[in-house]
Structures are given as C-alpha cells and as structure tokens.
Design goal:
single chain; 550 residues; alpha+beta; Peroxidase, domain 2; Immunoglobulin-like; 3 domains; 5-stranded antiparallel sheet; 12 helices; 21% helix; disordered N terminus; binds protoporphyrin IX containing FE; binds 2-acetamido-2-deoxy-beta-D-glucopyranose
Length: 550
C-alpha cells in the first residue's frame, strides 16, 4: 500500500492549518463549506439541499411525509437527550446511532441521514448539517418567515448517547422533567412542542396505537402511503394554525384529540400552564414566529460547554468560489478564478476589477480591466435565505517568476462608486506554492482481490521544492467503515518528484492514493508540503475537478 493511516484527522491538521479569527474573512475552514450550503442554495455548481424543503409538502417520500418536518424532528430527537446541567449531549448527530430505539420510530431519521451524509466532511460535521436541516425545514416551511440564525462548530458523537427522547404515552411530569433536562421550562416546553408540531403529523405506520391502520381510502403513490394524520390543517405551513385549532377545540391533532387518551401528550402539554401560552401563540402569528425562532435557535445551539460555536454565519460579500493555478510550459502561470459577489454590490454593467499581487508582494501589471466569462447566479430556495450572488470567471497569465500571492477586487456599483474589497485588509490569499495540476491528475478504479476501489493520482506543482522534506497527498477517510459515521483520519500517500518545469522554479510531484474500502467517500483532498523552514498546502480540492479515466 502506498499510503499509511495516521492519527485522527483533527490532530493531524490543527497544528498545520490554524483556523482564522472570528472576522468574516476568507478562507475560513470552520465556516466556508457551511456558508456555501446555507446561502448559495440554487447555484450552478452543486445541488441544493434546501430545495427539498420547498415546497414543505415535498414529494419523493411516502404520501404523508415531508423533508422539512423530518429534518426538524431529526434535530429535536438528536438534541432531546441533552442534559444541560451535566453539559452532555445536544446536537451531536448521536441520533444516527440511536435510530433503532423505541423512542425514535419511523423512517425520518434514516431519510435525513441519507440526505445529509454526502455533505459530511472534515469541514461540515454531521451535527452541523443536522442543525442546518432544521434551518432549512423552518425556512422552507415558513416560506422565509422564520430564518434561524446559524452557527457552525458542532462536534459529532462517536457512538450512541443516553436515551430519553419524550414519548407520547408518558405523563406530564415526565415530559416536564425531560424538557428541564434539555434546558426548557414549562412555558418553553409548551411553545417548543407547538413549534415542532405545526408541520408534519403522526404516521400510522409508526404509531398504529395513535393513528389506526389502514386509514381509508388506501391511496398509494410510488413511495407508498404511511397513513399520516397531520397536526393541523396547514401541515405545509410553519404557522400558528396548530395553536389556533387547539384552542378552538378542532380535533385535527392526533396527539391532542386522538382516540387514545394515553397518547394525548400535546393536550397535556398545551394545558400545562392552564392554556395561557398556547392561547397567546394562537392569537398572534408574530408572537408565535418570534417565540419559535428564539426556542428553535436555542434547540439547534444546544451543545456541551466544551463545544464552541462560531459567530452567526454571514454571507461574504466577495468570496473566491473556485480557483486553480496551472504552471505552463511557457513559464507562465494561468490563474483561473470564479468569484462570488453579492449581486446588489454590482452596477448594471458588472464592473469588477481583479488586482493580483505577486509572490513578493508587488502589484502586478494591469490585468484585463473587466471580469469576463459566464455570468450565472445563485438564489434562495425560500425567501430571505440571504442575498443573491453572481459568479464571475476570471483568468490571467502571470510570469511564473513573479507568481501570485493574493488579490483584491474593485467593484463599481450602480451609482458609479468604486469600492475595494480586500478581505479585511490583507487581500484574498491565493498561494501558488503548492498547486494540484488537474489536467495531469486522474481518478480511476482499480480492482484488488475482486473489490473495486477508487484510485486518485495527483500531480502537483511545488515552488522551490528543495525547502520541503515531505510532500504528501492526503485524503481524509472514515476511521471505521463499519460505523454509520466515524471520525475522519488522514490517509497519506507520499508524493515523489516527477520532473522540473523548465525555466521555472516549479517541480512536479506525483502521488497515488488507493481506497481501502469499496465504499470510500470522495472526500476533498489536500496536498501538503512540510519542512524545517515551513509548510505550504493546497487544501480541500474537489474530485470533481480531476479527470476520470477508465
Ligand atoms: C413531549 C414532546 C414530544 C412528543 C411526545 C412528540 C411526539 C411526536 C410523535 C409521536 C410524532 C409522530 C412521529 C411519526 O409518526 O413518525 C411527532 C412528530 C413530529 N414532531 Fe414531535 N413530539 C414532541 C416534541 C417535539 C418537538 C419539541 C419538536 C420540534 C421542535 C417536534 C417536532 C416534530 C415534527 C416536526 C414532527 C413531524 C414529523 C413528520 O411529519 O415526519 N416534536 N412528535
Ligand atoms: C420560562 O422562562 C422564561 C424566560 O426564559 C420566562 O419568561 C417564563 O416565565 C418561564 N416560565 C416558567 C414557567 O418558569
Ligand atoms: C393507547 O396507547 C398506549 C400507549 O402506546 C397503548 O399501550 C394502548 O394499547 C393504546 N390503546 C389503544 C386502544 O390503542
Ligand atoms: C373546548 O373544550 C373545552 C373542554 O370541553 C371547553 O371547556 C372549552 O370551552 C371549549 N372551547 C371552545 C372554544 O369551544
Ligand atoms: C460559457 O459556457 C459555455 C457552456 O457552458 C462554454 O462553452 C463557454 O466556453 C463559456 N464561455 C466562457 C467565456 O467561459
Ligand atoms: C528561482 O528561484 C531563485 C531563488 O529564489 C530566484 O533567484 C530565481 O529568479 C528563480 N527563477 C525563476 C525562473 O523563477
Ligand atoms: C496511478 O498511479 C499508480 C501508481 O503509480 C499507477 O499504477 C496507475 O497506473 C496510475 N493510474 C493512472 C490512471 O494513471
Ligand atoms: C509526511 O507528512 C505526512 C502528513 O503530515 C505524515 O503523515 C507522514 O508521516 C510524513 N512522512 C514522513 C516520511 O515523515
Ligand atoms: C466500528 O464500528 C462498528 C459498528 O458500529 C463497531 O461494532 C466496531 O466496534 C467499530 N470498530 C472500531 C475499531 O471502533
């Protein structure tokens, strides 16, 4: 094997790539991926997850199921075993290990996992993704009326936690105590349950003692029918209808008015304060929405004190979205960049000027005055998710001897005023020290003992390679392929010099990584050069940019 497993990925990386400070600057390993998923919902590069919560009654699941409702319930059940006094549990994705418990019936947890797991990376914990699922569910189902502020930084559990999700047959004292354990008093319990039970419903296939099966007529769709009785008559709207119908004695909600008195947990909870809170929520949609926004934000931010969440994510006004630096045979570098810009910053003519800075810090000679290329946009799946963006392609050739270290962007708005975007002062860093050369790299498969494994061969250009003693290709992989999720480990393949690029100080290095398991994920890869005088790296490179060969 060309590669060897090393220590856990977090240990391997923290000393080499320090996270940036709380300023909203690029790059930021803690937030860049999540910022993209949160704000660039419909974008030209990747499919949107938020789109599945729009409309809230989304199809693609059994009749009666919706993604938004599932994602909200998934987040609650993940959080619901928290003990805030003890400082344990909370949103930590431990639900993935707890799906078989009697307190977690239904397909919703597996369906949520299946959706979010492909986005699970070293830069997006599953716990952060589950919290984002709740943001999408609430945003999509409220049609943008409620936008939960989103922070990153949740840490995934490595196994199941204690049990303790509330169940409908339990009495009020038990529920009250469980919500206190989760950090919510009686008033807040009433509200949080009403906020959760404004979308979706009780699925007869999961709770036959609450919703008897079958409910005539037996309508079936391609994914079946799970016999749902919704909590209110506007199941697809995140609104106060559930509260209104409760106080009006409309017997829609099976957890409030169902035939089985034992499982009328909503009835007991909504009356826990004599009906005061639920009446206030019924009276005012604004009060309902503000209350739910506050409590659901607290729900998704329930984490142990040892876990430090980031500031609320804000969209960067200007963000490098994709970039590459190719070293050419004619002793030039081709710098290719796709910039994402908040569209309201730009005037009608889209006047933006990229000002590159050389390796030694000198302003490079005038470049193309106007960014060119295919302009495409990103928009929200539901209102108010954030600004719209435009993407601008930019390409320049720079003498390899001068190189590039950073750039700034001048943008002229609709009034003719020009503003320089310099990423908090230092410019947008763009190092040409180590760069994978995608056109020289390949991905393929290799059959070993009858098992088809992925193989990634990367060639990278390394500037002044003499200064490094170790140049490696790093592909993070699950530490345990048998587990639902497991901590990432850095699988390391050594890279060897494969030739100098004449007339430049670049040397090509090549390394080959072979997956250890047929289910190996195509996790973004790094090229890392280290030595006594320092280190350089190119991190989180996408397999999508590497040509596939048979
Ligand atoms: C005492 C507390 C609670 C009890 C006993 C309870 C019980 C239930 C039950 C029995 C279902 C039906 C699930 C199924 O058929 O698969 C359900 C659905 C749901 N619950 Fe709760 N719940 C509670 C609190 C909450 C809270 C606090 C939230 C979120 C803030 C929440 C969100 C949801 C959602 C969104 C659904 C619909 C899921 C779907 O349609 O797939 N629940 N709940
Ligand atoms: C619950 O806490 C809120 C403030 O966080 C407070 O306004 C409310 O009165 C409390 N309810 C109970 C029953 O203590
Ligand atoms: C009502 O629910 C309880 C608790 O799940 C269950 O034990 C009981 O059998 C149910 N009763 C009926 C009539 O379905
Ligand atoms: C709802 O039912 C309760 C209990 O039967 C009753 O006290 C209350 O007046 C009813 N409310 C309405 C609006 O009908
Ligand atoms: C614009 O996009 C089309 C289709 O994706 C592509 O063929 C063309 O080369 C692009 N033009 C520029 C300037 O990037
Ligand atoms: C290569 O590096 C040396 C030492 O840093 C420098 O003097 C020289 O100009 C560089 N040559 C090229 C072609 O970049
Ligand atoms: C990838 O590298 C391995 C190891 O050097 C080599 O055996 C294999 O042929 C390479 N695959 C491709 C497609 O270049
Ligand atoms: C090279 O660096 C990688 C990544 O830090 C490390 O895992 C590997 O052990 C190093 N190799 C040698 C020979 O030092
Ligand atoms: C890997 O995960 C499986 C399934 O959860 C578990 O049984 C096994 O003990 C784990 N192996 C290690 C080495 O942790």
């Amino acid at each position: 094997m060309a590669w060897t497993k090393t220590i856990a990925y977090t240990l391997a990386t923290c000393s080499l790539w320090l996270p940036t400070n709380a300023d909203n600057v690029w790059p930021n390993e803690a937030t860049d991926e999540l910022e993209k998923m949160l704000f660039e919902q419909q974008n030209p590069f990747e499919s949107s997850l938020a789109t599945f919560a729009v409309p809230c009654s989304a199809s693609g699941l059994a009749i009666g199921r919706g993604f938004g409702a599932e994602w909200i319930r998934n987040a609650y059940h993940d959080m619901a075993t928290a003990d805030v006094q003890a400082g344990t549990g909370g949103i930590d994705a431990s639900i993935v290990f707890e799906k078989d418990r009697p307190e977690n019936p239904g397909a919703g947890f597996q369906e949520t996992l299946d959706f979010f797991r492909p986005r699970y990376t070293t830069r997006s914990s599953l716990a952060d993704l589950f919290a984002m699922g709740a943001v999408f569910g609430v945003g999509g189902c409220s049609n943008g009326n409620i936008i939960l502020p989103y922070r990153a930084g949740r840490v995934d559990a490595t196994g199941p936690g204690p049990s303790g999700v509330p169940e409908p047959q339990e009495d009020l004292a038990t529920h009250t105590a469980k919500f206190v354990r989760q950090g919510f008093n009686t008033t807040e319990m009433i509200a949080l349950v009403a906020c959760g039970h404004t979308v979706g419903g009780v699925h007869g296939v999961d709770f036959p003692e609450i919703v008897p099966n079958p409910q005539p007529p037996p309508v079936t769709g391609p994914f079946g029918n799970d016999n749902t009785v919704f909590f209110d008559t506007t199941t697809s709207n995140f609104d106060n209808q559930v509260a209104k119908e409760f106080v009006a004695n409309i017997s829609q909600n099976p957890l409030a008015f169902g035939h089985n008195e034992t499982t009328r947990s909503d009835f007991r909870i909504f009356n826990a304060d004599g009906g005061d809170m639920i009446s206030r929520m019924a009276e005012s949609l604004d009060f309902f929405s503000q209350t739910c926004a506050t409590l659901l934000e607290r729900m998704i931010n329930t984490v142990p004190p040892s876990v430090k969440l980031t500031d609320v994510l804000q969209p960067l006004p200007v963000k490098p979205r994709k970039w590459s630096i190719d070293v050419n045979a004619d002793k030039t570098l081709t710098v290719s960049l796709t910039l994402r810009i908040v569209d309201t910053l730009l005037g009608g003519g889209i006047q933006a000027l990229v000002k590159p800075v050389s390796r030694t810090g000198a302003a490079l000679p005038a470049t193309s005055p106007v960014v060119i290329g295919n302009i495409s946009t990103s928009t929200c799946d539901y209102p108010n998710c954030g600004p719209s963006f435009v993407y601008l392609d930019y390409n320049i050739n720079i003498p390899a001897e001068q190189g590039i270290s950073s750039f700034t962007v001048d943008i002229t708005d609709g009034t003719g005023k020009t503003t320089t975007y310099n990423n908090g002062g230092a410019g947008f860093p763009l190092s040409d020290a180590v760069q994978p050369q995608m056109s020289l790299s390949t991905q393929t498969t290799k059959t070993v003992n009858g098992v088809t494994l992925q193989q990634l061969n990367v060639t990278a250009a390394v500037y002044n390679a003499d200064q490094y003693t170790n140049i490696s290709l790093i592909v993070p992989q699950p530490s345990n392929f048998s587990a639902t999720i497991s901590p990432w480990v850095a699988e390391v393949a050594p890279m060897k010099a494969s030739g100098k690029i004449a007339g430049t100080n670049y040397t090509l290095y090549t390394g080959s990584w072979l997956a250890s398991d047929e289910s190996a994920p195509q996790h973004p890869f790094d090229v890392l050069a280290t030595g006594p005088k320092g280190s350089a790296s190119s991190t989180f490179n996408s397999w999508g940019d590497v040509p596939f060969v048979l």
